[in-house]
Write a structure and sequence with these properties.
Elements (H helix, E strand, L loop, with lengths): L12 H4 L3 H13 L11 H12 L5 H9 L12
Helix pairs in contact: 2-3
Length: about 80
């Protein structure tokens, strides 16, 4: 069984602590009147779509990079090492 791609993984508060992901999710939640805890277990791809909807053309660089790195069909990003 293959590991899920990042856009299929779910948001994990404990794992995200002290990361740029947590910083951006906190900003998104504050802007939308949500709690970060509300997003526990939500797929990262869905959180990205929430950010895209909220920010529109002003999507922060973090989310632009996230989307670029997690486009469907990329396969394993590290390849054969």
């Amino acid at each position: 069984m293959q590991d899920p791609l990042p856009n299929q993984e779910t948001f994990d508060l404990k794992f995200a602590q002290d990361t740029p992901l947590m910083d951006e999710v906190e900003k998104l939640c504050a802007a939308n009147g949500q709690s970060v805890q509300d997003l526990e277990g939500v797929p990262l791809g869905k959180i990205y779509l929430m950010a895209q909807t909220h920010y529109g053309d002003d999507l922060p660089p973090f989310w632009k990079n996230w989307a670029e790195w997690n486009e469907p069909g990329q396969g394993q990003p590290m390849g054969d090492l």
